[in-house]
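Dear all,

This email documents one entry for the complex benchmark we are building for the journal club exercise. For each entry we list the sequence lines for every component of the assembly. Then comes the predicted three-dimensional structure of the complex as a token string, followed by one or two observations. Please use this as the template for your own entries, and keep the labels exactly as they appear.
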Amino acid sequence: MTGAIRPIHARGGHHLVQQRRNYPHVARRLEDLAIPVFRNRGEEIHGSDCSDVYWYRVLSGSARCYVVLPGGRRQILDLLLPDDFFGFTGDEGHFYGIDAVVDNTNVACYPREALQTLADSDSAVAHEISAMVLGAMSRSQQLILILGRTTAREKVGAFLVKIMQRVVNDDAGRLVLPTSRYDIADYLALSVETVSRALTDLTHRGLISLAGPRRVRILNRCGLDEQLTSDSDRQGD
Amino acid sequence: MTGAIRPIHARGGHHLVQQRRNYPHVARRLEDLAIPVFRNRGEEIHGSDCSDVYWYRVLSGSARCYVVLPGGRRQILDLLLPDDFFGFTGDEGHFYGIDAVVDNTNVACYPREALQTLADSDSAVAHEISAMVLGAMSRSQQLILILGRTTAREKVGAFLVKIMQRVVNDDAGRLVLPTSRYDIADYLALSVETVSRALTDLTHRGLISLAGPRRVRILNRCGLDEQLTSDSDRQGD
DNA sequence: CGAGCCGTTGAGTTCATTCAAACAGGGTGG
DNA sequence: CCACCCTGTTTGAATGAACTCAACGGCTCG
């Protein structure tokens, strides 16, 4: 499954690190450690077997980190856009992996040991890493807040707002979703049908408008965000 | 609200840090930075105003980190037991805070700047911090997995299994919950009634037994964990 | 003893899910 | 070019689950 990149690792990974450790005056940078991986939509970037060996960072495209629960359901733990950093933290008993979400996704895989070694010797790198880990932590907390929402409409609305903050979008609130309905469903712990219904519902309420399944326009961001408080929808409709 | 600890901070916080920075030969340890806070059940440890200034670590007792959503619902982001580390990551627009869950809870508050400075000069401390951040990340991911479960029974079951792994419990699977039903509800994004019903349901199924509201005994851990797959409950009941 | 909090149980409603079907778009091959 | 398939999306109907509102029992503390 993931064998394609392991030779690269064996060739340029730990060995190179050990070699260079003896020359601290050589400015080693994060990118020197990166094992580049290119994948098309749906292809596995890394699988369950070596998930605690690497850290991952999306360079272009987007990826999803997920866990397959014993029941067969897939829970997406994180949606990775360019510059996002991610690593699994040893949840045992599940199959977990990282897939590309769009074609030509480029992910950098950093061997953890080597990254640690580099961080020890270069505090600028250490700062960069901790900033990225903090970013991952932030996305994690925000997903908890979304999953903690009560209704599907609120979850989808909050998802759209969060995504809008992360992807390129014009001032008019137009954005292109990187994900399919199935990915949204597995991210929000909903069924596909419910996601679809929530989107049409939001459209009918005038909060968003859809131009094709992926092209969303946020018409009323505050309305999306504070749908929680909305008992106003009963009055307004 | 949180004014009680600010004088301590002003007295021994950044000032002390700046002073000692000039003596790198002095072995500065994490505990030197800690602002100790003692709180009883329900008392606030830190509130919304200074949540991005500190990192927190529970030394004894337990605490809850939560966010109050616009609608008034409280989502608990993390349940902190001794040695657990936590920090908010800048979710704007919400009120968030940390409360003690049991009496005599002792929490160490570390000023972030000073912690960073210390980590830069002492790689052992940096390792310790990154290990603790990783622990927080792990709990975060596990909560996502719990929230991603479909039924309330699964959520509560998974919660019990996770808690069992973290609190002291004898070999017979007996443990004492640190939390009330309300806290469990806000942690799992369920209503209190649903939590209560799920617990009695699990009892009827023979997976747990209750000796008082807080005293739980896990009778069948695998059954709790893999309730996901269980269509067996229809046959068995 | 009363007040207040916590926990449980019941009844009715709301909401998400499942199962099912239909539709749209992109690709391939005839 | 059209037929066809496949994937992704949407909508409908019926079931099932969690929520709200409500009431009650237990417990602690003043």
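Observations: The CA atoms of residues 1 and 25 of chain B lie 38 Å apart. Confidence is low (pLDDT under 50) at residues 1-21, 228-237 of chain B.
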